[in-house]
């Protein structure tokens, strides 16, 4: 088990929570215990926990960033639920998981889209995240202003 599996479990758990918001702690606990069975490194379980909690905690900060880099006249609600979750996870990683290289985050997001969504979604996610990366300094600056 590695970070890829932690990302897959996070995606699945976030999807479940979006479909059934009242099941919060139950969904988290269920996915965490499945991961604990497979986990070889405690760091991967910690990564799952940070990613899961980080996306939930920072959703209100992540969504406007994603929205800003969507195609003109697109909204987050227009995206498939899976694509929205993948983008939220990736943007969280880009902003808050400093030890994860940007390229790894981008690649993993595209792979998640290929596995759980479509080839077209993978290209779309790659484009959105690529644009965010090109403007990362500005995005991080905006984030810093929000913290003040």
From TrEMBL:
Pfam families: NusB. Keywords: RNA-binding, Transcription, Transcription antitermination, Transcription regulation. Residues 4-134 form the NusB/RsmB/TIM44 domain. The keyword Transcription regulation applies. CDD domains: Terminator_NusB. Gene3D superfamilies: NusB-like (1.10.940.10). NCBIfam families: nusB, PRK00202.1-1. Belongs to the NusB family. Involved in transcription antitermination. Required for transcription of ribosomal RNA (rRNA) genes. Binds specifically to the boxA antiterminator sequence of the ribosomal RNA (rrn) operons. This is Transcription antitermination protein NusB. The lineage of its organism: Bacteria, Bacillati, Bacillota, Bacilli, Bacillales. The gene is nusB.
